[in-house]
Amino acid sequence: MGALSIKRGTKMQLAKEAAVGQQPVFNMISTFNKELDESAFLVSIPMMDGKSLAADESQKFLFQYEEGEENRIVAY
C-alpha cells in the first residue's frame, strides 16, 4: 500500500462497503489522526448525524479524502 499522504486533522468521509454493482454512500465522517504503519492508520470514531457509531469488526469501511484536487478512496 505504501505511505498515505494525509495530514493529521484531515476530515475523511466514510461509507460501509457496498455490494458489488452498488455505489457506496459516504454518509459518515471521521478525522485522520496518524498513520500507524503501512497497513493501518488511526482515525476518530465515525460520526453520522452528530452521533458516534459503534464499531463492528466484521464491517469494512471505505475512507474518502481529498489530496490536492483529487478525491482518494482507501478501503479498510
Short description, anyone?
This protein is mainly beta and 76 residues long. It is 0% helix and 49% strand.
SSE layout and pairing:
Blueprint: E1 11-16, E2 28-37, E3 40-43, E4 47-48, E5 51-52, E6 61-67, E7 70-75
Antiparallel strand pairs: 1-2, 1-6, 2-3, 4-5, 6-7
Describe this structure in words.
With 76 residues, this protein is an all-beta fold. It has no helices and seven strands. The mean pLDDT is 86.
Brief descriptors of the model:
mainly beta; 76 residues; five-stranded antiparallel β-sheet; two-stranded antiparallel sheet; 7 strands
Question: What share of residues is helical?
Answer: under 10%
User: Which sequence of strands runs across the widest sheet?
Assistant: 3-2-1-6-7
- Supply the number of helical segments: 0
Q: Could you describe the largest sheet, including whether it forms a barrel?
A: 5 strands, antiparallel
Estimated share of beta-strand residues = over 45%
What is the mean predicted local confidence, pLDDT?
86
Intertermini distance: 11 Å
| N-to-C series of helices and strands | EEEEEEE
- State the shape: globular
**Backbone CA Rg:** 12 Å
Q: Give the strand tally.
A: 7
